[in-house]
Design a protein that fits this description.
Elements lengths: L19 H14 L3 H32 L4 H8 L1
Helix pairs in contact: 1-2
Amino acid sequence: MYYIMKPTTSRKILNVSISPLIEIQVTSIAKQDQKTKSEVVRDAIREYSLSRSLREIYDYGRKQAQGLGIETYEDIEKIAG
């Protein structure tokens, strides 16, 4: 499972390679948002991590619903009473 990262004062350097197009996009976003490129990349990683967590929760819920035979909101109302 993935978690939202809490801001911290300590930093680690992570070297990654990106295409020139992505570098242009990161630079453009940084200028528009008045952030550093590092901040933009950190924000993107946080968003990705959150998206993965939400997708895992959705998939779990879908599997549970299938196991209970839930297909519609009416099925939920029948179970919930």
